[in-house]
Amino acid sequence: xxxxxxxxxxxxxxxxxxxxxxxxxxxxxxxxxxxxxxxxxxxxxxxxxxxxxxxxxxxxxxxxxxxxxxxxxxxxxxxxxxxxxxxxxxxxxxxxxxxxxxxxxxxxxxxxxxxxxxxxxxxxxxxxxxxxxxxxxxxxxxxxxxxxxxxxxxxxxxxxxxxxxxxxxxxxxxxxxxxxxxxxxxxxxxxxxxxxxxxxxxxxxxxxxxxxxxxxxxxxxxxxxxxxxxxxxxxxx
Length: 237
Fold this sequence. Notes:
This protein has one domain: NAD(P)-binding Rossmann-like Domain (Rossmann fold), CATH 3.40.50.720. The chain has 7 helices and 9 strands, in the order βαβαβαβαβαβββαβα. It has helices at 17-28, 43-49, 61-71, 92-116, 147-157, 189-199, 220-226, and strands at 8-12, 32-37, 52-55, 75-78, 121-127, 162-168, 170-172, 186-188, 206-210. The longest helix is centred in the middle third of the chain and has 25 residues, at 92-116.
C-alpha cells in the first residue's frame, strides 16, 4: 500500500508504557507509524516493532516541527509522560514536576506544530484519578483537582482540529511496574492503548474516561463512542 498522509500516524512518546503496546497495534492495523523517543538507545526497539523511530525532545520546538513535517501525517497521538517506573515513591515528586512541564510546554509545542502542519486529529493522554472528592462514579464533567491538568486538557479541546483527551485510570500490566490493579479506577495498559487506537478513527472531539467499571470512574461515554472494552488484551504475534 502506498504511504499517504491518510495512513500515517505520529506517536509522541512511543517508548512509554502505553506507546510500547499501542505502536504494534497500529502497525498490525496497517498504519505507517513514526514514533518518538528522547533516548537514542530505544530507537532500535521501535524499529523492531515496525515503527519509524525519531529521537527528539518535545522541548526542542524546531526539531519537533521538522520531524512532524517529515512524517507527513494527519494524525498525532500524544503519549508523553516523565514519571518514574512503577511510580517509585522516592522519585515521584520530581517526576510529577517534570511531567507537569511536559504537559505545559511540550503540549503547546506539539499543538502549534500540528496546527501548522495541517493535522486533522490529535489523541492525547490524561488521567482519570485527579477528580475533586465528590459523588462517584466520576464523569467527564466532574471537576478536576489539578488546575494544570485542566489547562493541559483545554489546550487540546481549543484546537482547530479534532482533539480527543483520554483520561486513563491507574495503569497496570506490561511496562507499568504493576501486574495487577492498584486500587479503584484502574485500567490495563493494553485496554488503554486500544482506546487510543480506536480514537484514531472514531469519536468526536472531547474528553473520555478510560477505566474499569469498579464504581469510581464512569467510562460509559468511551464505551458508547469508541465501542471500547476494558477487558481487551493485545496478543502480538
